[in-house]
Amino acid sequence: MIHPDHEALLAEVTGGEPTSDTRQHLEICEDCRQMAAELQRQWEAYRVFHKGPMTEMLPQPPQPWEDLRPRMNTRSGNWQWMAIAAAMLLTVLAAWQYLRQPPSVSAAVLLVKAVAAAKTPNPARRIVVRSTRRTLVRPAVEAAAPDSEKDFRALFAEANYSWEEPLSAKSYQEWRGTLESATDHVEEIPAGAAGSEALYLISTSTTTGKIHHATLSLRQADLSPVLTHLEFPGETIEISPEPAPPPPPAATIVKAPTMEIPSPGPTASDELRVVAALHSLAADLGEPVVIERTAEAIRISMVGVSPERAATIRATLTQLPLVNVAAADLRPSALPPGPSANPAADRILALSDAVMARAFAIRNLEARFPNGDAMAPPDRDTLRVIFADHAQALEQKLNDLTAAVQPRLPTLTADPAPPTSKASPESLLAAARDLDQALNRAFASRADSQIEGVAEALAQLRAAVVAHRNHWSNQR
């Protein structure tokens, strides 16, 4: 099928001279109808801008316009120059409007491009299907499903989703075309520091059909699908390519009797890549994301995470080797908070929570990688960068917190107290916890003694931060 180009669609929506072929094509092609609807929306936005804000910005003429028709009839050369100047002015205004509000990526257009870029399926390619009940490994394209997959096949058939090739842009596009109403959202996920690739994340929500929410993750480089996430009533299914097998171990000469050498499992380096990927998403600051390294894989579980956040984390982690992301126990997206009765107190407590989150992250990082100095140089550098990021953010939040409570603590000094213990993540976390408790007691009682306790806890935490910073400076 040959699709009309943008010029033909633009002529259709702006009242130009579309061809009969364009109109006939729009009657049968849902994707082009959506592209035409998007062009119609942009055209209407331009017309509203032209009649409203642009007209309001123009100054009033100093005098009534002179009738130019006699001059136009006698001076055709001047009229041509005026036409050129007017065309240049419209071009500048159109460019300004485009830069002022660039068009967003359309899910329909992105799917059309992904389907066009899809390669011929590789018969040897396999996919992993994970549900809340079981995990299945099968060919990526399967014309006839075996009886062992009849529950999946029936579920997908009822939802109008292809079970023959479930991990493809075409299957997602065809399912989306069967929906009576749907809301799409496209998010661009940049490449992460842990080696994850840049992705497009297409999310579709609907109140019709058996699938009420779905996401398709596409690799930005070639628009190939890397993850499909489908939410059925009481069932969540994720489909991803089967991870490549780990490289075989180097040949080893052993004395008889010969022993079978098992394939290597995930290492501390693999676990560090997962931690670095979560750190690039700021998902290592207290979110309920659990990392468990077993002999076979690094298992990731999420509890109480919003669907949007879970999809972003899943799309990033599934690109890493030997990583198994379990189906998340999701919660609805959080509603925006209402007006605060005491904004100043809320800001102080929020800053204290941020300090606690960074202190917890530093402590957890130290506990997870206690022998960081013995790791390979690239891993050691990655670990130190994460430590430095958390320490710098903690110190900045502590400075903000000190400035916020300064008016309430006239006796607070700028110089930190001498450290009371050896620099360690545990002492840093203990000092952050003492400050948080002192702030809560001060807001509850408002007694002078409790306010002095806040000043003392601030000084102790600042001393712990300085000691921790000096410790890491010496380690480098």
Structure, briefly:
The chain has helices spanning 6-13, 20-28, 30-51, 53-57, 69-74, 76-100, 107-117, 150-158, 169-177, 268-280, 307-317, 343-368, 377-405, 425-445, 448-475, and strands at residues 126-131, 135-139, 183-189, 199-205, 213-219, 225-232, 235-241, 289-293, 298-305, 323-325, 329-330. With 476 residues, the protein is α+β, with helices and mostly antiparallel strands. The protein has 4 domains: 6-58 and 80-103, no CATH class; 109-241, no CATH class; 268-330, Alpha-Beta Plaits, CATH 3.30.70; 343-475, no CATH class.
Question: Can you walk me through this structure?
Answer:
The protein is 49% helix and 14% strand. By secondary structure, the protein is of the alpha+beta class. The chain has 4 domains: 6-58 and 80-103, no CATH class; 109-241, no CATH class; 268-330, Alpha-Beta Plaits (2-Layer Sandwich); 343-475, no CATH class. The protein has a 7-stranded antiparallel β-sheet with strand order 2-1-7-6-5-4-3, sandwiched between helices. Strands 8, 9, 10 and 11 form a 4-stranded mixed β-sheet that branches. Strand 6 and strand 7 (235-241) form a beta hairpin. Helix 7 crosses helix 9 and helix 10 runs parallel beside helix 13 (377-405). The chain is globular, with a radius of gyration of 30 Å. The model is unreliable at 98-103 (pLDDT under 50).
Instruction: Please state the average pLDDT score.
Output: 78
Largest sheet: 7 strands, antiparallel
* Unreliable spans: 98-103
Please give the share of residues in helix: 40-55%
